[in-house]
């Protein structure tokens, strides 16, 4: 989950803007909870899979 669309109940602003201490604390907590693959979008995953497939096909032809 990202804080791009979350609205703070304290200041009624976006959490990503960090207007109040509650926003800043929640934004920091969300950033700590994100894993190493949190920034991967579905398009990036498809591109990585296609790249891996291309490398596998090239390796297969090189061995044959």
Q: How is this structure best described in words?
A:
The mean pLDDT is 84. With 64 residues, this protein is mainly α. It contains two helices and no strands. The protein has two domains: 33 residues, no CATH class; 27 residues. 55% of the residues lie in helices and 0% in strands. It starts with 20 loop residues before the first helix and ends with a helix. The protein is rod-shaped, with a radius of gyration of 20 Å.
Write the layout of secondary structure elements.
Blueprint: H1 21-33, H2 42-63
Gyration radius, rounded: 20 Å
Low-confidence stretches: none
Q: Estimate the strand proportion.
A: under 5%
Q: Please count the beta strands (DSSP E, at least 2 residues each).
A: 0
Shape assignment:
rod-shaped
Would you tell me the structural class of the helices and strands? mainly alpha
The count of domains is 2
Number of helical elements: 2
Element-level helix/strand string: HH
Q: For the residues shown, what is the average pLDDT?
A: 84
Main β sheet profile: none
Helix content: 40-55%
What distance separates the N and C termini? 45 Å
Short description:
With 64 residues, the protein is mainly α. The protein folds into two domains: 1-33, no CATH class; 38-64. The protein has helices at residues 21-33, 42-63.
């Amino acid at each position: 989950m990202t804080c791009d669309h979350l609205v703070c109940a304290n200041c009624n602003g976006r959490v990503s803007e960090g207007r109040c201490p509650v926003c800043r604390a929640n934004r920091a907590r969300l950033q700590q909870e994100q894993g190493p693959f949190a920034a991967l979008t579905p398009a990036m995953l498809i591109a990585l899979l296609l790249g891996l497939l291309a490398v596998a096909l090239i390796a297969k032809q090189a061995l044959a």
